[in-house]
Amino acid sequence: NKRGKRTATPQKKTPVRIIPLGGLHEIGKNMTVIECGNDMFIVDCGLAFPDEEMLGVDLVIPDFSYVEKNKEKLRGIVLTHGHEDHIGGLPFLLKSVNAPVYSSRLTLGLVEGKLKEHGLLGKVQLNVVQPRDTIKLGCMAVEFIHVNHSIPDALAVAIHTPAGIIVMTGDFKIDSTPIEGDIIDLARFGELGNRGVLALLMDSTNAAKPGMTMSERKVGESFSNLFQRAQDKRIIIASFASNIHRIQQIVDYAVKYKRKVAVSGRSMINVVAKATELGYLKIPEGILVEIEGINRYRPDQLVIITTGSQGEPMSALTRMAMSDHRKVTVNPNDFIIISASPIPGNEKLVNRVINELLKLGAEVIYEKMYEVHVSGHACQEELKMILGLVKPKFFIPAHGEYLHLKKNADLAVAMGVDRKNILITEIGKVIELDGVDMKVIGTVPAGRVMVDGLGVGDVGSIVLRDRKHLAEDGLIIVVTAIDGQTGEIVAGPDVVSRGFVYVREAEDMMAQTRKIAKKAVETCMANNTHEWGNIKNKIKDDVGDYLWQVTKRTPMILPVIQEI
Amino acid sequence: NKRGKRTATPQKKTPVRIIPLGGLHEIGKNMTVIECGNDMFIVDCGLAFPDEEMLGVDLVIPDFSYVEKNKEKLRGIVLTHGHEDHIGGLPFLLKSVNAPVYSSRLTLGLVEGKLKEHGLLGKVQLNVVQPRDTIKLGCMAVEFIHVNHSIPDALAVAIHTPAGIIVMTGDFKIDSTPIEGDIIDLARFGELGNRGVLALLMDSTNAAKPGMTMSERKVGESFSNLFQRAQDKRIIIASFASNIHRIQQIVDYAVKYKRKVAVSGRSMINVVAKATELGYLKIPEGILVEIEGINRYRPDQLVIITTGSQGEPMSALTRMAMSDHRKVTVNPNDFIIISASPIPGNEKLVNRVINELLKLGAEVIYEKMYEVHVSGHACQEELKMILGLVKPKFFIPAHGEYLHLKKNADLAVAMGVDRKNILITEIGKVIELDGVDMKVIGTVPAGRVMVDGLGVGDVGSIVLRDRKHLAEDGLIIVVTAIDGQTGEIVAGPDVVSRGFVYVREAEDMMAQTRKIAKKAVETCMANNTHEWGNIKNKIKDDVGDYLWQVTKRTPMILPVIQEI
Ligand SMILES: [Zn+2]
Ligand SMILES: [Zn+2]
Ligand SMILES: [Zn+2]
Ligand SMILES: [Zn+2]
Question: Number of H helices and number of E strands within chain A?
């Protein structure tokens, strides 16, 4: 009896804790803390782009105060790949903690550029790893596994802990015919699965999409057709700068069709330079030409690779569309390919760029018309394949909004994972695994820290609320100087407005506003109300009521009283 | 010879002028002026919803100053159908001009509601017309033609003018199996085509989409499946209020599956009431229940029809998703169908609602998963059919952004219209047709007038620029009282900020700002600069430089000087 039950009642082991600090219920700022005993490390430290409500905010990073508070336990930072949502928050973290960084050569190459910008180069130890390498981080070991994605050199990790093996896929897809390098290391996922995997954290981005994601090579086939169709026109292709395989394909077809390649847009120029330097991008001698020199070539001798596939207002393609690009003047001799699909929220921006390019007479090919883009993320059949190979005991869907996490959880159930062993969780939750159970045992601070200019975290909800208020109805300032002794008005009230109405056409309303403000102050004085706060409130109320009545708007009203 | 050339050299006739005032290079605020001799009428007067840049703006209407200036020529206003982008601007126009309005019964029913809101009811003559009716408007006659669309009672118009027949399709699709009434009157389009049509203005909304738009009945088939799948759950369906055929189908399936129907959301309640009153919506006795009384029924006895299919923040469905709806508490016993596709720009809002509904445990069906929505606009095959029937001499693509107009023009070429007889034009252009030629002969004022609260047109580019500035970086106010005689500072400078930084955590910076402002004033005084404008500029520059240096932000700086 005793012997027979051995496997049925497994022993609890030294627990490992998983603390997601970003990437759940959101797309972006992926970051996960792994802890065991006195050791801690981080997988990824990304950024997110601000929502529309985050007025004026440049970017968003995770709240990593928990890591800062426990920095003596931090043994390392592991990065899965070089996308902004996985590395963009790193420089901000490295300003307050220091730990060796481990990742692939390309990822670290891109990190280097960021560290330089932030004046951190040379202060951080960057360690290049290869797929199948294993590094020790305290009582844990991290093994790197090759995966396919829309940037080269992407890695999954298998974390070997006292409690068992935890597999984190990072972003991935299964591409049987990748442009460079091998298909994702399915064999290793399978081996780990056979040894027994305690928990799997898997990319949910495309979990709502059935089928398989198409190979990057599919885009190449489209390019091949389109290069022929372009005939004697100049070709302009907009794409994500980080999609180096896409750029490689463009270069390859340019060579084939005897065209030179010029590059436009800051991030495109940077990535092309970095990827070429590191050998990820292979551009034959004499193919690359300066954007300044494109006029020396005929249209049919040129391909321009550019940023702006999302219609970003300051990007090179948008500037071309608005006839505002210093080197490229779009004309009916241009054949333009937008090799990306609009990220939700960017559809209108992209449409605007397409409209303007068409107005300039260019031919424009975009995703809905032609297969000029494939996703970098696994769809349902791929996710099921990984679930089938890894056969995890516990499953935590990662990277996605709730609808994606939920779908991924449903897939896991369909693949035989016990529904009660699946956890859809939130950032800041401390998940403990002891080899037997998975439990949420607590919460640490987590959330979004807004970066605006040099300020990190100094824009919070009050500032945003004020910005929103100002944005919607503008502002009325009422300035009054009052004699501190007599309580009499010495100057003003003067009324200044911004973003409210066109003042020249609203002189009567402004005069009336002044009158009402004056009356408000005088009423207070007559009632012996000398408390500035009370007078200000009276001004706010009376002016606010009046303006609402005549305009049905609620500008921010700012009374300023100066005591003389 | 003379006789033979008769048809080859057609005579010029009394010219007719077409002046689009909205709906070109945009989706929304459709409005077209038709003029002949001393007579003028309008086809449609719609509104548009503001872009993201139009901060705080409620809605946008066409600039109809040209109509106001020529109101003595205005013989009538013709409305094609009851969508906001065709009738929403009407009450604003009717405040300055008066003319009889002609349209179908449902359209005028919806117009009535608007006129009531604007206190215009009874002041405007509303004339119900039937398909195939013809009305005289000065020297022109307008004939109404039945079309299919996503609202009942939609009409195309054939304008009989001295120069020839002009056909305007309005919004349309070809639905061979409409929910109510007939298929679009293709026979009449064909008859007109055989008589000879001078010009066609045609809906371009779906001109980039190949194939045929599916019948509204297709949605019914999906509903039938989904009602079965919902089993014992409560069904909640979000849809456009104006899609009365959709609502009719929901009611019909509710009856079939023995469920009561409750209605939520102001516009849904209004439209259901109006459409029932006018007989467009047929709800059997005892089916409709008050939303207040839904708790008296089991989940499987209920269907709730609601607004919010676009994730609009204040809509009923969004409030349900945010657990903020007074009558409906979403729970795992809810089966929710979003019967619409997100309008470009609304994807994130819709996604957010879906995420929140899923978190509450509800099952959520949306467009990408299931055919729960069809468009109201004709796709390429339908557009080609109309082109083939009408065989116009001249073609003007209408209703769409440039990319749609361009595609529609290409379709017309494919259908045999001469490329030089096609005009992609802009609002404000005066297009003249004399039976022989089509020419742009001039321009009239046209554009977008922003409505914010009660203000119509008082928010312009300067106000928007200020709102944008305030939204992005907030505001710093510097208030100083100066002795007008000595030039000495009597009080201040006081610094007030909003939307810039969280002031409690930036006290040093604020103190420094005060110091710099004080120095600026003192420097001016020392240099005998007493011109307030110059002192203000100095404060702006110095404070701005300092804040840029420490924050890399550019708040709006508003210096106020009071002379004592
Ligand atoms: Zn990625
Ligand atoms: Zn990612
Ligand atoms: Zn419509
Ligand atoms: Zn319309």
Answer: 16, 25
Domains and CATH numbers, chain A: 13-211+376-446 (3.60.15.10), 216-369 (3.40.50.10710), 461-563 (3.10.20.580)
Task: Flag whether residue A403 sits within 8 Å of chain B, measured between CB atoms.
Answer: yes
Closest CA to A463 of B516, B511, B555: B555
- Cβ distance B470 to A472 less than 8 Å, yes or no, reads no
What are the φ and ψ backbone dihedral angles of A514, each rounded to 5 degrees? Answer: -60, -45
Give yes or no: A541 in active site: no
CB atoms within 10 A of CB B55: 25
Q: CA-CA distance, A361 to A364, in Å (whole number)? A: 9
pLDDT at A8: 61
DSSP annotation string for B292-361: GGGGGS-GGGEEEEES-TT--TTSHHHHHHTT--SS----TTEEEEE-S-PPTT-HHHHHHHHHHHHHTT
Which of B54, B363, B470, B482 is the best mutation test for A, with the most CBs of A within 10 A? B470
Gap between the Cα atoms of A401 and B119, Å rounded: 46
B486 touches chain A (CB under 8 A): no
Q: Which residues are A166's β-sheet partners?
A: A159, A199
Q: How many helices (H) and strands (E) does chain B have?
A: 16, 25
pLDDT of residue B229: 95
pLDDT in tens, B316-360: 999 999 999 999 999 999 999 999 999 888 889 999 999 999 999
Taking the CA atoms of residue B453, residue B458, residue B463 and residue B467 in that order, the dihedral angle to the nearest 10 degrees is 10
Q: Is B377 tagged catalytic?
A: yes
Q: What single letter denotes the amino acid at residue B400?
A: G
| Partner residue opposite B498 with nearest CB, options A359, A479, A556 | A556
Residue B305 has a CB neighbour count (10 Å cut-off) of 26
| CB-closest option in A51, A453, A471 to B471 | A471
Q: What pLDDT is stored for residue A514 in this prediction?
A: 93
Which residues, other chains included, contact A119 with Cβ-Cβ below 8 Å and sequence gap of 6+?
Answer: none
What pLDDT, on a 0 to 100 scale, did the predictor assign at position B484?
Answer: 79
Q: Closest Cα of chain B to A295: distance in Å? A: 28
Angle, CA A279 vertex, CA A202 and CA A238 arms, to 5°: 70
* Cβ burial B426-464 (10 Å sphere, 16+ → b, else e): ebbbbbbbbbeebeeeeebebebbbbbbebebbbeeebb
CA dihedral for A465, A469, A474, A477, sign (positive or negative): negative
Residues in A touching B321 (Cβ below 8 Å):
none
**Cβ-defined contact of B551 to A454 (cutoff 8 Å):** yes
Q: Nearest ligand to the C-alpha of residue A375?
A: 1
Size of interface A-B (CB pairs under 8 A): 198
- Encode pLDDT of A28-47 as tens digits: 999 999 999 999 999 999 99
Residues whose CB falls within 8 Å of the CB of residue A393, separated by 6 or more in sequence, listed in order: A164, A196, A197, A198, A199, A421
pLDDT in tens, A143-158: 999 999 999 999 999 9
Letter string b/e over residues A496-529, b meaning 16 or more CB atoms within 10 A of that residue's CB: bbbbbbebeebeebbebbbebbbebbeebbeeeb
| A477: closest CA of chain B, how far (Å) | 9
Q: What is the DSSP string of B349-366?
A: HHHHHHHHHHHTT-EEE-
Contacts of B564 in chain A (CB under 8 A): 481, 490-491, 564
Q: In this model, does residue B255 exceed pLDDT 80?
A: yes
A360-393: burial string, b at 16+ Cβ within 10 Å, e else: bebbbbbbeebebbbbbbbbbebbebbbebbbbb
Q: Is the CB of residue B91 less than 8 Å from the CB of residue B63?
A: no
Half-sphere exposure of B331 (CA within 13 A, CB side): 7
Residue with tokens 């398989």, as numbered in its chain: A212
Do residue A462 and residue B502 have CB atoms under 8 angstroms apart? yes
